[in-house]
Specification:
Order of helices and strands: HHHHH
Length: about 130
């Protein structure tokens, strides 16, 4: 998991009225009020800052992978961590942008990268199905 992804997880858990996703299970799906205006404002600024940081982190991770390719080819198992961090930071840039848009209208936002990736894949599949 990238640094920016971890930051999104932390700020979203703090912002959500019901906390992390693990706290949502077993609860009735009833209306949950939005977070306070203070939390919304702080998280809005944080999502914007994290999005910019994720772009920088992605560029740094991409440079690291690019410049270390000669060493990574000799030991392909050592390539897994840098490539995973690159994927995570790139996803975090888009995830923070989505959270920036959803922040003011959704009570609980996803807190785990895996859940956000899964939701993105389902949305994309549904979207593509409508136009195929």
């Amino acid at each position: 998991m990238s640094i920016s992804s971890s930051l999104i997880t932390n700020i979203t858990t703090w912002r959500n009225p019901q906390g992390a996703e693990g706290n949502w299970s077993g609860r009735e799906h009833k209306y949950v009020h939005l977070p306070s205006l203070k939390k919304l404002a702080i998280s809005e600024a944080a999502f914007a800052a994290i999005g910019l940081a994720a772009l920088v982190e992605t560029a740094v991770n991409a440079a690291f992978v690019l410049f270390s390719l000669p060493f990574l080819w000799s030991d392909s198992s050592s390539a897994q961590l840098p490539i995973e961090r690159l994927k995570s930071s790139a996803f975090a840039a888009g995830w923070s942008g989505a959270n920036l848009l959803l922040n003011l209208g959704v009570a609980n936002l996803t807190t785990k990268e895996e859940t956000a990736r899964s939701a993105t894949a389902k949305f994309y599949a549904s979207f593509m199905h409508k136009f195929s």
